[in-house]
Amino acid sequence: MVQKDCVNPKIVCIGGPTGVGKTALAIQLANLFDGEIVSCDSIAIYKHLNIGSAKPTKDEQQQAKHYMIDIKEPNEEFSVAEYRNMAKKIIDDILSRGKLPIVVGGTGLYMKGLLFPLDLGHTDKSPEIRAKYKEIAEQKGGAYLLEYLKDIDPKSAEKLHDKDINRIIRAIEIFELTGKKKSDYQTKLESEFDYKLIFLNDDRKKLYERIDKRVLKMIDLGLENEVKELVENYNLSRDNQSMSGIGYKEFFDYFEGKIDKKQLIEQIQKNSRHYAKRQITWFKAMPNVCEYNYKDKDIIILDIKRFLHN
Predict the structure, then answer these.
(1) Which of 39, 131, 176, 265 is the most buried (most CB within 10 A)?
(2) Is the Cβ–Cβ distance between 41 and 53 less than 8 Å?
(3) pTM (whole model) above 0.85
(4) Which residues are CB-contacts of 116 (< 8 A; sequence separation ≥ 6)?
(5) What does the pLDDT look like over 151-181, one tens digit per residue?
(6) Which residues contact 237 (CB under 8 A, 6 or more apart)?
């Protein structure tokens, strides 16, 4: 059991690349340490995005209590600040009942935003500015928009791709609303939590092989129909935040006849591998991270026991 009224309450976090086994480990730890799981996944928050997000199945969610899954409609947007505020309330509730919060997922930006508050999260939003630049993006393309961002905030621009339309627009929006560059906002690297951050990893070649197989399994499970129904039922486009996830965004070129089924699968596999590589880089750079091979569950369990009793 976790102490209820700690100055810096203890939480366990599990991050790592897609397909490495984070969910299975989280469920095992929740059952061992009387814990409850807080998802940290930017796509699993959306209702009806089940196959492509690889969100925990109904059976897995029955094995341990899960939060922050299926909380948004597919046509809604969601920010780091919203994630932090919602997850923080849930964590406080879990702690108040003497249980262990286990934050698990591959969205490093959400994890960092939870552990280390971002001043950026309090910046206002402007539907007018967003609509204006979405129209410009549609007319002139993402590359044009990215070039504009380079003029006002080169540091933010260098971290983005011309297909990251929503993130480019957000950086422009922050500048226009505040007069400050997004890159000027600092993350406070002092956490209110006493956290154990587990970075789950594996041999790169083996990880990539599992990712490729998992994509094929998603296709077999009916991923194409899932995306098609989402697009039709919610009138979604590639600009919607929910459709920016790997396993969803690639389908738009397929539906438009620009690529065939074989190319679609290869793109999802390639993008998933590249994403896993970026996740590895991100989590390795997190403060106080502890890296483990996904097979080292006995070592992880012992280390968590030490952490909880210190």
Answers:
(1) 39
(2) yes
(3) no
(4) 187, 188, 189, 190, 191, 287
(5) 999 988 988 888 889 889 988 988 888 788 8
(6) 231, 243, 252
